[in-house]
Amino acid sequence: MSCWSLRCVDLCEGLANVQHIDDFFLAGCGLSSFDFVDMASLRSIGDGCLSKTAQLVDVRLMNLPQLASIGKGLLQDSGALQRVRMANLPQLETIGDSFAAATPRLFSCEVTNCPSLRTIGERFLNGSGLTTFAPSGLAAVTTIGSNWMSDCHHLRSFTGAVLPSLRHISSYFLSGCNGLRYFDSSGLGSVGGIDQCFLADCHALREDNIDFAGFTAVRKVDFRAFIRSHELPAKARQRLGKALQQLVHASNEKGTQR
């Protein structure tokens, strides 16, 4: 059933005892904001619950003590979305693919107090409008999917401190972020491998603004389409590749000595 003309939903305490919200719950509706807040029994949110909501601007997921999983595409293709706030989700373990993908107006995504969050799927914020991304709530995340934040054309900087427990960088990580000017690997000391197209097509990146020193545990790197940038001449790209190879060698040497 289509709900594109739906503008207001007043659920009061009607969802207090709900444990699961089914797939495509309010997909395509006309709401401008929606809150998943203080739902004490909620354990899971299905796929695409608020996807393709053309007028949705603000979403909050807060104070959900039992929530363990969020399905695929919760906010995908919600073209007017500007703000997402996630806080106090102590049991949240997984977020599915395409959480807020294709949201070009999204400028704020706050994530705090999600101590159990371990896995985030592919295309998490792919194609979002974020200029910066520095949440404190991803400290326990060990696994992310490919294209995690690719094609974020307004993203200006990224620091590894966002993902201090990450074990592997999947393919197309930050690729296509053509406004990215600064990459700092500090905090990525748990990363053991880097897949293809790492920082590919980030055309504003310059050699002086790329720091790989934080990759202290990396043991394998796929150099296909490695750091493609209009601002990086071939020799600079070679120097960066060599620096990363030296880190790989040092890490493998440490592993051999153990």
Question: What does the model show?
Answer:
This protein is mainly beta and 258 residues long. It is 9% helix and 18% strand. It has a 6-stranded parallel beta sheet, with no helix packed on it. A 4-stranded parallel beta sheet has the order 2-4-6-8, with no helix packed on it. The mean pLDDT is 92.
Give a quick summary of the entry.
With 258 residues, the chain is mainly beta. Helix content is 9%, strand content 18%. It is globular.
Jot down its keywords.
globular, six-stranded parallel sheet, four-stranded parallel sheet, mainly beta
- The fraction of residues assigned to DSSP E strands is 15-25%
How many distinct helices?
1
Q: Describe the strand arrangement of the main beta sheet, using strand numbers.
A: 1-3-5-7-9-10
Distance between the termini: 61 Å
Structural class, from helix and strand content?
mainly beta
Element string (H = helix, E = strand): EEEEEEEEEEEEEEEEH
- Helical fraction: under 10%
Q: Which regions have little confidence, pLDDT < 50, spanning 5+ residues?
A: none
Number of strands: 16
Overall 3D geometry?
globular
Mean pLDDT: 92
Q: Whole-number radius of gyration? A: 19 Å
Largest sheet: 6 strands, parallel
Pfam families: LRR_5
InterPro entries: LRR_5, LRR_dom_sf
Topology:
Blueprint: E1 20-21, E2 33-37, E3 44-45, E4 58-62, E5 69-70, E6 83-87, E7 94-95, E8 108-112, E9 119-120, E10 143-144, E11 157-159, E12 168-169, E13 182-184, E14 193-194, E15 210-211, E16 220-221, H1 234-257
Parallel strand pairs: 1-3, 2-4, 3-5, 4-6, 5-7, 6-8, 7-9, 9-10, 11-13, 12-14, 13-15, 14-16
